[in-house]
Design goal:
By secondary structure, chain A is an alpha+beta fold. Chain A is built from eight helices and 21 strands. Chain A folds into two domains: 232 residues, P-loop containing nucleotide triphosphate hydrolases (Rossmann fold); 101 residues, OB fold (Dihydrolipoamide Acetyltransferase, E2P). Chain B is mainly α. The chains are: A alpha+beta, B mainly alpha.
């Protein structure tokens, strides 16, 4: 098997006694699009900065293309980093921004090479018409295109992207998501993309790394992480509305809430008590046995989110727009037993 | 409706307008009127003399000298203060223990009254008993007459001004440097920009608009140089006289108000012309660089 482009092992980093990275370990292979997903403060940015060489880890190894990267300064690591706040050189034109990394003397690129690379990157990102504008005059979306362009022109062996879409508005974010995913396929070099947005992770990643409080809790394909989360913490990171987590007790095949309200029948070789994870889309609003009182109905366009009190627990249900309910209504939620995730308590 | 709005508008603006007219517009206009008379500080009965005062201004070798000296002073003082202040600010960019105390200590000269500073330095640089010459003598070195040697005293005053105002440049430079986002430096580091390239391509252009503003402040101030000259040599010294002290000499020592007013008008025109050119340049700089 080919060596991975990036191999990280047992990375440790603390700031003033607070552990930011705690034994982080993973590989990134050629051409792979890897998304690091985690809440704010999980250590995602520190991880990227450490790989880029802007931070020095307390312990651990970073091997890049078979060589020890930790002994190299940022400039020699052959990675490109795209910042959340774009970090363009504001007084320079877009062209000058794109040329800046290419004009490093060590690269020894000729004028025609530089021109060629800038033109290619500009056409990939559809920013040709912006080339002679000062970076400061661009909109957020344009700035991020230029920032990504500045990374692409270098043709690095690894792209590091630190929440590149977070500072953009929702519509633009979804547009760029698709476009950048397509672009990444054409680049060849692997991308390590950091985000706190689960839909970004699910829609873009070949592989998701869930990072919480400095530890990797799960690594896997998006569907794997979504449908078979390794722990309730991981389950909570993905999905909107959030997954329902219910402590339950089994008597035979029948599972009940702590207060005795029956939830559903599942054949599961699990212990008698467990934490159940039920995705909101796996609960139908009708057809169940126990009643629930609707508390909130949220219209999301094509879908509705219904929040209902079910015995002592509050359930989130994702229903189609056709299902109409009002706060106070009684519904009979039916849980799809086959899709429940069980963590033994 | 529009009418009452108009009335309100004027009522609100009137106090400031009145102050401006009383203390700015009227004195300026009256100064122009005076410049065409032979008015004196004491005594009454002045008469119009036409452009005679202006004729004397342009014929006066003392004025040409003062103008040249002021220009030299502004150029040297502001240039040195910018260079030194910006260098110190660059050195202070790194975090270190006691940085705040160092910055505060460096700001002290700027906080003192120029007149007091002038008097102090007069003592320090005194040819016979000043600490500088005492020390030089003790070391067996020559003891120049800092404030009385005609080839030296201008440069002594310049040095005092630099001592006094370098902290100002440093402070503004620190603010300008602090406004550059660290991530831009990080981007440059990853983009393989060396230290010199970072300095000339990022630090300098991004700090330039703020520095230019500081230069404007300092230059307008240095153009008016008065206190230090008064304190060190007095207003009528042929090797230190600046435009301000020359006008002071004419109006308050010689009592020739009309002539002094003509001098002031000419200086005003020169200063306004310079300021216009400079602010145009500043605008251009700000629009081409990433200034806030």
């Amino acid at each position: 098997m080919k060596d991975p482009v990036l191999r990280i092992s047992n990375l440790q980093k603390s700031y003033g006694g607070r552990r930011v990275l705690d034994g982080v370990q993973f590989d990134v292979s050629a051409g792979e699009f890897t998304v690091v997903l985690g809440p704010t403060g999980a250590g995602k940015t520190t991880l990227l900065r450490t790989i880029a060489g802007l931070e020095t880890p307390d312990a651990g190894n970073i091997i890049m293309n078979g060589a020890d990267a930790l002994s190299l300064p940022p400039a020699a690591r052959d990675v490109a980093l795209v910042f959340q706040n774009f970090s363009l050189y504001p007084g320079k034109t877009v062209r000058a921004n794109l040329e800046f990394p290419l004009r490093a003397p060590e690269r020894g690129l000729g004028e025609s090479d530089i021109k060629d690379r800038v033109a290619k990157a500009a056409s990939m990102l559809h920013i040709e018409r912006l080339l002679d504008r000062p970076a400061r005059q661009l909109s957020g979306g344009e700035m991020q295109r230029v920032a990504i362009g500045r990374a692409i022109v270098r043709r690095p062996s690894l792209f590091l992207m630190d929440e590149p879409l977070t500072n953009l508005d929702a519509k633009l974010r979804e547009e760029l998501r698709v476009e950048l995913r397509e672009l990444a396929r054409g680049l060849g070099a692997p991308v390590l993309w950091v985000t706190h947005d689960p839909s970004e992770a699910l829609s873009m990643a070949d592989r998701i790394i869930v990072l919480i409080a400095g530890r990797i809790l799960q690594i896997g394909a998006p569907e794997n992480v979504y449908f078979a989360p390794a722990s309730p913490e991981v389950a909570r990171q993905l999905g909107s509305p959030p997954i329902n987590l219910i402590s339950a007790v089994a008597s035979g095949d029948l599972w009940r809430c702590a207060d005795g309200t029956p939830i559903c029948n599942i054949k599961h070789p699990a212990p008698a008590s467990a934490l159940l994870g039920i995705r909101p889309e796996h609960i139908a609003p009708t057809g169940g046995e126990s009643p629930a009182t609707v508390e909130v109905v949220e219209n999301m366009g094509p879908t509705r989110v219904v929040v209902a009190r079910f015995g002592s627990v509050v359930l989130h249900l994702l229903t189609s727009r056709d299902f109409s309910a009002r706060p106070g209504d009684i519904i009979f939620p039916r849980v799809d037993g086959g899709k429940i995730i069980v963590w033994s308590a | 409706m529009a009418k009452t709005d108009g009335g309100m508008k004027w009522a609100l603006v009137a106090p400031v307008l009145l102050l401006l007219i009383t203390f700015n517009v009227f004195p300026l206009l009256y100064n122009i009127v005076l410049s065409f008379t032979n008015a004196e500080l004491v005594g009454s009965g002045s008469r119009t003399v036409g452009g005679a005062n202006y004729g004397r201004v342009f014929a006066d070798p003392q004025f040409a000298g003062a103008l040249r000296r002021t220009a030299l002073f502004v150029t040297c003082a502001v240039g040195a203060e910018l260079l030194l202040g910006f260098s110190v600010a660059l050195a202070l960019q790194r975090a270190f223990r006691g940085k705040q105390a160092v910055v505060t200590a460096l700001l002290v000269p700027m906080m003192l009254s120029p007149a007091v500073i002038g008097l102090f330095w007069n003592l320090i640089l005194n040819g016979n008993y000043g600490i500088v010459n005492q020390t030089l003598g003790w070391l067996g070195l020559p003891q120049p007459q800092w404030t009385t040697d005609r080839d030296l005293k201008f440069w002594s005053i310049l040095a005092i001004d630099i001592w006094m105002w370098t902290p100002f440049m440093m402070l503004i430079s620190l603010a300008g440097l602090g406004a550059i986002p660290p991530s831009i430096y990080e981007a440059a580091e990853i983009d393989r920009a060396g230290r010199l390239r970072v300095f000339f391509k990022i630090t300098l252009p991004m700090a330039a608009p703020v520095l230019a503003l500081a230069v404007l402040f300092r230059a307008t101030d240095a153009l008016k140089q008065f206190d230090l000259v008064m304190a060190v040599t007095g207003p009528n010294d042929s090797s230190t006289q600046t435009v301000s002290t020359l006008i002071y000499q004419i109006v308050f020592r010689d009592g020739k108000v009309g002539l002094g007013a003509a001098f002031a008008c000419v200086v005003l025109v020169v200063v306004v012309a310079l300021a216009t050119v400079f602010t145009r340049q500043l605008d251009r700089l700000r629009s081409s660089e990433g200034a806030p």
